[in-house]
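$ run holo --ligand "MU-OXO-diiron" --emit tokens
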Amino acid sequence: MEMKPVELKKGIYWVGAIDWDLRNFHGYLTPRGSTYNAYLIVDEKIVLVDAVKQTLAEELLNRVRDIIDPAKIDYLVVNHVEPDHSGSVPRIMEAAPGAKIVTSPRAQKGLQRYYKKEWNYLLVNSGDELKIGARTMKFVHMPMVHWPESMATYIPEEKLLLPNDAFGQHIASVERFDDELGWEIAREEAGIYYANIVYPYGNQVNKVLDTVSQLQVDMIAPSHGVIWRSHIPGIISCYRKWANHEAPAKALIIYDTMWGSTRKIAQALQDGLEDGGVPVTVRCLQTNHISRIVPDLLYSRAVLIGTPTLNNGMLPTVAAMLTYLKGLRPKKKLGFAFGSYGWGGQGATQVLEALQEMGWEVPLEIINIQYHPNKKELEQVREAGRKLALMLKLFNEKGDEVHGPESSA
Ligand code: FEO
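-- output --
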């Protein structure tokens, strides 16, 4: 038996779907699954805000049926065209043939490209309002948070913000609210989501946060995961820090290894950084997926990346990590490249070039050691780690104020 709709506010219901089995969201591992949240507003007009992925359309419609005949839906608000939300729009429009789709002109084009259907539209621009009875829906465009057509719907009478993907988390749970799930898990998953989905768009996120700060909001109901009602200042504060690329004075070492040499160098770097009082997170690419490493960058100002040389280049795992990072564009990092090699030795240099291409500060020369490091070389590596610890402190002093993972406000 499916979970019943959940009433968020009088006459406003969560009617989304829970994807317990989702383990991969276009390359982003989701070991906890996800939800696609949709919200039914029962007023003089019946409004469905957002939808779910195609395979879960009936789950959504069954929840709507618990409240009202879907044929009575007047408006379907499409805040975002990505198919995890819009995939069920054709099925919903069959069930609600009289409904108009309320969306941005850009999203209309996207829906037409995806679904090739003739639907009735009510196109809205940023700042437009639509009266639905006792309530008003106000639309705020949020370009590139995280697609060009992304939009939020705000209901001022309810102090309710429906920002689609922003503030979301990929987690399947019976809990619908942040305080039911717990701040720590909600924040952790919101960070993982931010790092994998929203990281490149810090400037645009800051604009959204500026807009949200002008609104009266006591509930933020995103399109994935739990609804924020008890930790709104906490999650907004996290988003501001992530958008500004603020990170604590900690280090992250990412590496792969063929015969253990690059691992030894990574361990000596860790020892040196810890000598200098810097906490270090270590992620080997053989045991950590790239999508689970990226969130560590939110909490690490220094990022050290190491590779052996294979066939005149980096190991493919390291190349994949760097390709992913280049797309996500983390900023304000102190970088360092290292590696080991047999004869060519190009791998570490290629890592260095990738770090520089991302605009990171890379103050120390690469460490690149042939075959296997000896005791003296490992001591030199450790010394480089100590130097990096010192540089990290200086880098932080001249940079932004640094904060650790947020505790709830
Ligand atoms: Fe949840 Fe951008 O889709």
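-- notes --
The pocket of MU-OXO-diiron is lined by residues 80, 82, 84-85, 146, 165, 223-224 (CB under 6 Å).
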